[in-house]
């Protein structure tokens, strides 16, 4: 499979998945509350499908080439790798929110606030990341990566959770502070590396 060429990347970088709407089983929806939600089914009643970002202008990328050969320069590759890190951070936050919705719903609003602030603070970089990922990866690669990386994150969250309900509530209560620390310290260079949307 084509996405296997991406295996050398970290789990976060594997998340070439979150851009676009309704692409091979990956839907980007706006909920009635205004939150952006990524899901594997069509947007439900009361939610609005979000349009896929337009890919960067310029020559089309030959997606039949192995992933490593799709770049014309090291800088181009660095931008795409930064975009993948941003996409991975977004997926990790969405999965944390979904995890806590099931185990500690009272804590979800605080986690969603961190997520919303992050999206607002880095809106240009997130849009540029979506565009880069759309340009340099195929729909199948994005769908396969969404499934694979989402599964790895779910497995990791479930392993940490165990069957201890009190521990799950405590983990979800601590999640906003942990996410803030994670976002302040991990991949902070990725935002400037992707540049602005084009």
Describe the structure.
- This protein is mainly α.
- Helices cover 54% and strands 5% of the residues.
- The chain is built from six helices and three strands.
- It has a three-stranded antiparallel sheet with strand order 2-1-3, with no helix packed on it.
- A hairpin with a 5-residue loop joins strand 1 and strand 2.
- The protein is globular and about 50 Å long.
- The two termini are 30 Å apart.
Strand order of the largest sheet: 2-1-3
- Sequence of secondary-structure elements: EEEHHHHHH
Largest sheet, described in full? 3 strands, antiparallel
User: What would the average pLDDT be, to the nearest integer?
Assistant: 76
In short:
By secondary structure, the chain is mostly helical. It has helices spanning 74-103, 108-121, 123-136, 139-161, 165-185, 190-194, and strands spanning 27-30, 36-39, 48-49. It contains six helices and three strands; from the N terminus they run E-E-E-H-H-H-H-H-H.
